[in-house]
Amino acid sequence: xxxxxxxxxxxxxxxxxxxxxxxxxxxxxxxxxxxxxxxxxxxxxxxxxxxxxxxxxxxxxxxxxxxxxxxxxxxxxxxxxxxxxxxxx
Length: 89
What we know:
The protein has one domain. A hairpin with an 8-residue loop joins β1 and β2. The chain is mainly beta. The protein starts with 14 loop residues before the first strand and ends in a 7-residue tail after the last strand.
């Protein structure tokens, strides 16, 4: 059996389930484009992450998030993983 560092803390959990999300738009300087952000609430608020997005990524992610029931986020690699398929399916 592998050794697990103790104690297991919020900081030691590397992959979390997305509970809620919120897109925002931050205005740029006058005449400059704004910036989209995506706030991820993970494991019912145990962890939060804010991603900065370009408009195309924001549009694509909004579609994926709206159409995927289960989403996970790898904190170290900053990767959103969409959907869960049971083995043998």
